[in-house]
Design brief:
homodimer, alpha/beta, Aspartate Aminotransferase, domain 1, Aspartate Aminotransferase, domain 2, 2 domains, 7-stranded mixed beta sheet, 4-stranded antiparallel beta sheet, 12 helices, 15 strands, about 40% helix, globular
Chain lengths: ~400, ~400
């Protein structure tokens, strides 16, 4: 008799976005005259940079001719893409060689699949509030999960505690959902902790491209990280690839546990359960890192950054505590008047028709906090903040 | 301390294709004057059907404009692709509703990942010779594997044995590597076995498009299969998508084990560890199933089918036992003169410069057998068979 994975029942159904949709739909039906502005979404909205569209089309064209046709790609990605990413890392002071980079269909897949190379018997540490994928994928594998608190006191940047023993640590910086970004000293503390405990850090740098201040854009900016960290990144937020699907994971050649190369384990995992990324998509990925691609990517990033600043400035004006707003497309703020996350959700929706994400959906430390994203249009962002100021200044 | 997955060490390094490459390279270096024809490759060589290239380009174009831009896709694929596949199933008598279909980046990913929904404690049955992915992905998860013999006596179509208890069964028909395809009665015997034992069949139908005779093109052509089988298919061989990357998996709504819907488990798995398929690729996938797409796809398939026939006819002429050659791009034959697989590999390479795949690389029942594929050019296929006849008729 086929037995199902018993650990799936440990995963909580996450009704967060379903619940949001339900409340918004109910409100919209009852108030068809109200204009609703959605700022809860973590998905990009600007079109792809022109250079990447051209590359996609050229890649498609290649597939139409026998001489340029591409069959099965390399499991780890084409060298021209890996070289481009290696060069990109150099710009912010991280030494990552092309052959440590694995191209994939996105950071979420890699975040989910990386657990395959580890034993079930590992204690996983995540920071709370947390991107649910880190938790759910490890629950599915029957691993024990412990939480490090991110909260107002530490600026939503949880730090390691030497009294707590973790084997695998998920860090996300700039953070989803809190927008906070570790500085060099903070990240070094995590690398030191991992080194001392022979732990492995899974570092999610999906939002690194939003960093404008002097903060590490890769964990490999920290000495010692190549012996204790895997980094997972994505072009989804960098270049608007949420619907194009391309990410990359770095497993340093010198990263070993129990005498075994994690690079070799991940290579084996990918060779066995993955067959590489679509040729046109890899062409588009490489185009992100060309001079023209980079210029266009920065243009889009600046648009979202300006939206984030408009939200952050509003919080400043209203005297509300927040993290993010710079180095991140997210603004994570304390609900005014001691409202709970869901109370504030309803309050905003009902009074000004603005939709965001209740922080409670990301973990216990999210209660009483709220997330707005910079991915709306400029017009909607400005209008939503105008309404919010009017509401809260009453 | 992070502990690695202990089961990775149970996987044998598969040196098959590396060893082939090594021997071919050595021979080529020593005999630069000899023309070498490669017929070992399981990858397509004809360009993509024009309709799919156009769809890829149109999909790329969509991403360039705000009004048509696509962000995160649905985890299970866009409805227009799922509907097209559901209609395709109807053509060969299988009732598969669109909402039982999950679009993915390829059959190999799904074959590898499907294990996530099952407990470690399951006995997995594979037929031998076997596509190594079924074995390696289950070894990685620490599952016990048993083998059903495919051999000359049963036409390389292993059948169930009621005395052997298996929980999860991998079937591939038309088979890789043997080219044999189950008929309705044979497949029914497997469905009946799975039903009686509450087992689940993972049915790999990646080569179904090669079927021209009256054979089931889906396990759902068999009564009862929807209560015991998951089907994994791909556009790689159907439409030359090996470098474009798109496949699909069917998990019937009525398939339950231990009172739990496997559809819900797989949905949860995909929602947690996967983020959907690239927009332009999904556009191309849908184009495969348009009238024009189907016509172009058939044209390519017929080219490969004719190559397979040329190989099969050669075997007939030489009086060599083989399977496949029809309903399959593979011809699997008995090495002449009682040669071992590798002896025959060297014999062909050294005497006529033709490269194939030694059957021994696919399992113990592959020893003494050899695989040739229909994916070369017509010219090379004809020339290779001319050389083979000359060699063996001496």
């Amino acid at each position: 008799m086929a037995k199902i994975n018993p650990y799936f029942s440990d995963i909580k159904q996450n009704y967060l976005f379903a619940e949001i949709a339900k409340r918004v739909n109910t409100f919209a039906a009852e108030h068809p005259e109200k204009s609703i502005i959605k700022m809860g979404i973590g998905d990009v909205t600007l079109p792809l940079p022109a250079a990447t569209v051209e590359a996609l089309k050229k890649g498609a064209e290649d597939l139409s001719r026998k001489e340029t046709f591409k069959g099965y790609p390399d499991y780890e990605g084409y060298d021209f893409v890996r070289n481009a990413i290696s060069d990109y890392y150099k710009e912010f002071g991280a030494e990552v060689s092309a052959d440590e980079i694995f191209i994939s269909d996105g950071a979420k897949s890699d975040c989910g699949n990386i657990g395959d190379i580890f034993a079930q018997d590992n204690t996983v540490l995540v920071t709370d509030p947390v991107y649910p994928v880190y938790v759910d994928t490890n629950l599915m594998s029957g691993r024990k999960i412990i939480y490090a608190d991110s909260n107002e006191a530490n600026g939503f940047a949880a730090m390691p505690d030497d009294n707590i023993k973790a084997d695998i640590i998920y860090l996300c910086s700039p953070n989803n959902p809190t927008g906070s970004a570790y500085n060099k000293e903070q990240l070094k503390a995590w690398v030191d902790y991992a080194t001392e405990n022979d732990a492995v850090i899974i570092y999610d740098s999906a939002y690194e491209a939003f960093i404008t201040e002097d903060l590490p854009r890769s964990i490999y900016c920290i000495e010692g990280a190549k012996k204790c960290a895997i980094e997972i990144c994505s072009l989804s937020k960098t270049a608007g690839f949420t619907g194009t699907r391309c990410g990359y994971t770095v497993v340093p050649k010198e990263l070993e546990r129990e005498g075994v190369s994690l690079y070799k384990l991940w290579y084996r995992r990918q060779a066995t359960k993955f067959n590489g990324v679509s040729w046109p998509v890899q062409c588009a990925a490489a185009a992100v890192f060309t001079k023209e691609g980079r210029r266009q990517v920065e243009e889009n990033l600046n648009y979202y950054r300006e939206n984030a600043k408009i939200i952050a400035d509003t919080m400043d004006e209203l005297g509300i505590f927040y993290t993010g707003g710079k180095n991140s497309p997210y603004v994570w703020f304390k609900c005014p008047n001691k409202m709970s996350s869901w109370e504030f959700f309803d309050y905003m929706l009902e009074n000004i028709g603005v939709v965001g994400t209740p922080g409670e959906g990301f973990g216990k430390n999210g209660e009483g906090f709220f997330r707005l994203t910079a991915f709306s249009s400029r017009e909607n962002t400005v209008e939503a903040m105008r309404r919010l100021k009017e509401l809260l200044k009453k």
